[in-house]
Amino acid sequence: MILINVISLFLLFYLKKSSGTQEFPAQLKRYFNYGMIAAGVLIGIAIIDLPPQILFQLLSFVLVGGIVYLILLTPELESQKTMAITPLPIVGVELLKYLIETISPSIYNTLENYLNAAGFFALIWAVTMWLNHRKQMKEIEIERIFLKEQERQLKATAEQKSQLETLVAERTSEILKQKEELQDALDHLQSTQEQLIQQEKLASLGQLTAGIAHEIKNPLNFVNNFSELSVDFLEEIGEEMAKISDSKEKENILELLEDVKSNLVKIRHHGSRADSIVKSMLMHSRGGTGTMDPTDLNALIKEYSNLAFHGMRANPNPINVDIQLDLDESLPIIHLNAEDFSRVILNLVKNAFDAMRDKIGALGNDYKAKIQIQTKDQGDHILIKVEDNGPGVPDEIRDKLLMPFFTTKKGTEGTGLGLSITHDIIKSHEGKLTIESKVGEFTRFSILLPKVKLGEKST
Amino acid sequence: MKILIVDDERDVEDLFRQKLRKEIRSGTLELEFAFSAKQALEILASENPPKVVYVFSDINMPGMSGLEMLDIIKEKFPKIQVSMISAYGDEANYKKAMESGAKEFYTKPVNFENLKKEIAEITQLNL
User: Fold this and answer.
1) CB contact (8 A) between residue B110 and residue A225
2) CATH, range B2-126
3) N or C terminus of chain B: which is more exposed, having fewer CB within 10 Å?
4) A236 interaction partners in chain B (CB closer than 8 Å)
5) Tens of pLDDT along A265-312?
6) Considering only the top CATH level, what class is A293-458?
7) Distance CA A446, CA A384 (A)
8) Pairwise CB contact (< 8 Å): B108 & A229
9) Complex ipTM over 0.85
10) What is the distance in angstroms between the Cα of A262 and the nearest Cα belonging to chain B?
């Protein structure tokens, strides 16, 4: 009976070792240990031949049967199934021997030779099965190692892939950043280029106006000088006429001479107006010649909006306009080129008049033209707002408003220079001009001027 | 006293004659006109010694400029006073004229009050 228990011990020992890297559950390991102890005890009992032999022999069969049962039913031992079959013939033969011997020893004696032969064949079968199982197990082990290696490689590849992906993402974001920077630089360049073109245009415009102004100045001088002279002469004529005796003809002549004189005075007046325009054109085209003097901005706005209004009223197509001044009385005296800045006010107000005249033409007298001029102390800056309730500026031309020679006025009414020069003057004061508008409702020009206080300049 | 006025604008003649009518009528002043620097130099050269004591000249003229003429007059007729009249009252022209020996520098439009004063002074000197 030692053989059966040795088989049990061997099976348990082998199963315990076969776990390899994958650990069996603690429960299973406990079974193995108890089984091995039981087998060892049974072997010991068999050696010292402790009675009752029959019971211990039966227990030996129960143990080996239990082990086989365990192998067949435990999923973790699936790969060891052939192990369960290996000792079965031996166990079967031994069980037969045991049963026959226990039931009828006489029959056992007659069959002993056959049973021994069967035991021998069972042993051969078991060894064959065992070797076969070992081979199988090795193959499985090799396959397992191979799979493991493959898995490791796969894992490494995945890791490399994710590293690459991280790298690619990094590079992509770098490139994107660079692209954004380049785009910024390009935008900057484009706007600089636009500004340069503007400045170039303005510079050539400046030269042009200087040239034109000079060419106009000479003939204008003649107009002014001759009209002035003629007024003098008419006075002399008047003195001479006094010496001639009165008559109806003389009265008529005196009346006509009076008219001629008043006409000449008008010529002289408008000639000097033209002269002052030419002078300021020259002043502006020379650039930077005007000095920044302490100026009461509110007074300047009052004066020039008023001037623009009366100029408009004196010219053809006067319109009725409600001019509302909302001037911040706390405005400090600031440094301005008053001559240039007065032109800013004139231009903006005149533009508003022209735009509103168009609206009056379109809508009739129901429309009440209105201009609001506002100044506001904003701490570091002074805000000047000129807002009209005219036709507004469509979005598509708002950007073009400041370009030289761009005009919405018909025929010879506009030169397209007013706002361009206005913008230029504001820039020379380090200010900012923004235009807001809603078609059909309003147009608002906002000028933001940095405040330069008298005290700051002198210290 | 004879004064020469040089300007390519022909209306300058009428203007000056009318503005200085009284002086001309009283005989204290005689005006001569040249419409180019070349013509002016010819007039000055035609009399020896020239009767002209004072030249008023424009600067920007076709052909020879007033400043070039100034140099020639100062070289050939150092006794004649020359004043410049220019629409371009810039620093460069002013400096050049003064360095070349111009007496005065008038900017256009000409202020005849000042001009008359200047003429009156010269007249005093030349009586």
Assistant:
1) yes
2) 3.40.50.2300
3) C
4) none
5) 999 988 887 887 777 667 556 554 557 788 899 999 998 999 889 888
6) alpha beta
7) 6
8) no
9) no
10) 20
